[in-house]
Amino acid sequence: MSYLEITEPLRKIPVPDADAVCAVDMGSRIFTLVCGYRLDNRIVTKTICHAPLDLGADIARNHGRISAGKLAEIGAVLSDFRDCSTHLGVTRIIAAATAAVGRAANARKLIDLGLTGGIAVELMDEQREGELGYLAATGGKSDRLVSKLRSHSCQVAWKSAAGTTVIYLDTGYVKAYEDFIHKASSIGEATDTYRDFLKQHFHLPSGTEQLIALSATTCASFITGLTEDRVRDTALSAVKVAAKLDEVQELLTPEFDALKQSGSDMAEVLTGLIFLDCLLSRTGHGQVVISGADLPMGLIHEHFGSQVSRPAGG
Length: 314
Hints:
- The protein is an alpha/beta fold.
- The chain has helices at 55-61, 68-88, 99-102, 108-116, 126-138, 173-181, 187-201, 217-224, 228-231, 238-249, 253-260, 266-283, 295-304, and strands spanning 5-6, 20-26, 30-39, 42-52, 93-97, 119-123, 144-149, 154-160, 163-169, 210-214, 234-237, 287-290.
- It folds into two domains: 5-124, Nucleotidyltransferase, domain 5, CATH 3.30.420; 137-290, Nucleotidyltransferase, domain 5 (2-Layer Sandwich), CATH 3.30.420.150.
């Protein structure tokens, strides 16, 4: 299992196989395996392992196709995921490739790779990805606004009596960083241009009860100075987000340039900081919940037909 970063001990689940399922998020950067099972009328979800694959970069380098070498890597990872599931005592695995991945010209080869390992792979479109993310974050409750900033896409989703509305952009933090932040002399300059871009493309609803951010733990850790584990599934105030943005704004150009070069996650962090501040200020929410949920939790809740308020467990 050389590709995998194990995050949870591979212990047998405490329920029959029929009450369990494993779900895979096939993302542009990382594949994630999550186990879910029903226990005492609730759903327990545990993130088992990650596999960093940088699939989006591979697709970009190969003119919209997944290279043969990367397909071989993916096949090995899916096989490892199958082995992990076997150790857990779970036979059923479902998987979903994000919309950014699913647009690769040869994306259907992912379905074939899944079939080889007995894994049902779905190629999601933008609406489907937004609906699953919303379900993962809310358990199906209405009147929430759910955001997600990934490496190669960003989206917001909300649910009303008319259904789930999803707004999806192909501009994730990788492209947003290059377009708005990388060459900027200050965070203020970057904020103005990125905010204008988001305002142009994101129509946001009014009166939602809660703002929830998926895939935001790295950014929240930077804002608070706490570890990702400590910020996961906690509320982050709009005041604290704005204060961190002001703190970065006070940096002189050389200091700002040094910050941008201080770590491999700075593209995600600085783009995410502006993204969260923009959503908070535009919606008027006083805080954002930094959710630990992700797409596999949506698949698991859908599999069990659950309408619980949030994923339980890890």
